[in-house]
Amino acid sequence: MKLLAVLVLVFSLVSCEKKSEAIDKVGSMVQETKNSDDYTVQDKNNQSNSAEERIFTFDPVITIEDEFIPLLNTNVFVKTADESLAEEIHQDLITYHKLVDQYHYYMENNATSKNLKIVNDRIHQKESIVLDEKLFNLLRDSIDLMPVTHGYFNPFINPVLELYDGKFSPFPIENADPKAVDIKNALKTVLSYEQATENFIFDESSYTLSFKNVPEVSLNVGAISKGFIAEEIAKKYRNGTYLLNLGNSTIYGQGRDYKIGVQSPYNNRGALFHINLPSGLSLSTSGTTNNYYILQDDGKTIRTHLIDPYTGYSNDYYWSVTIVSDSAMLADALTTALFNVGDTEEAMEIIEATRKAYGCTLEACFVKELSRRREEVELLMTDGFQIYIDNEYKDVSVVDKKIIGK
Where does the UniProt annotation place the signal sequence (predicted)? Predict the structure, then answer.
């Protein structure tokens, strides 16, 4: 584990006397954060006890082949005054990383870890497998979410995602879409909820996953795993004081309130808006800032890594979707799902269905671009989202706010 030797978050205010010695390291972290898989989310907290807290960043995880993989394949840090707590969370994150990685093999307790990579191998071999309880629950929860989200969350979208390998970038580049015929063929192998429940058998008594006549498919939990992990960390460390950042797509604060800034789509400005995040709640944002490309056919259409499982392409209904919830897992999954739901009435149906099915608190904000030339957006919010917005912060990009679902 590496301790970043500054007393502030990447985005916190740095005192004048500390600025000169910290500027190189802070600048490095800002660049790393901008290259993460979702929107940059900034901790703007300036409470008096923040000076006692430090940022802890972590080394890569080593695979069986001696490859060095970034923890959870993104930028992860914990802000806390408790170094021992940071180290405990670090060790848990390593364990979870090994479980959810679908591309690499790892050693765990002198044996090959039964992770998602092994699960996908077994699917192709049609062999049952006894899983770690956490991974078992994550896979089951991922499938259970499919009907609740009207199918917009789909853990079987791998065949389509693979067509986009190497196309996305953290900075503006032009690229071509995959061939339409390839997308059409890949979509045929993306399972529906009915197909998934027919062919995937979960035995809760033994945490065994068995398969029937499963076609050549694989599971991908990238759109839910960070939220799931944050939720598990939250359950285990209820009495600590810390901010957990899993690649900025999932933020969880415990022990005190935090002020978080959601990045503006116009990078020459600061945060688009600030959120007052109460202790015990999580924040998730998915959007168009990173992992995207500009369609070379027209030079303006933006394609993101948030692929619509019905069409095989990303949509441009919103610039981003942000959710505040007491369930980090649901917040993570729904920001991905709702990004591709252009009808706000249907989006509200999904939100209400999720609240009812899981008994959770869940409020959403959709950032819709009005004019790229004038750099103007509007915020489409559920009624309960308003209480989290810091109204003292003003950004000239936000020209309108509307409440949906009434």
Answer: none
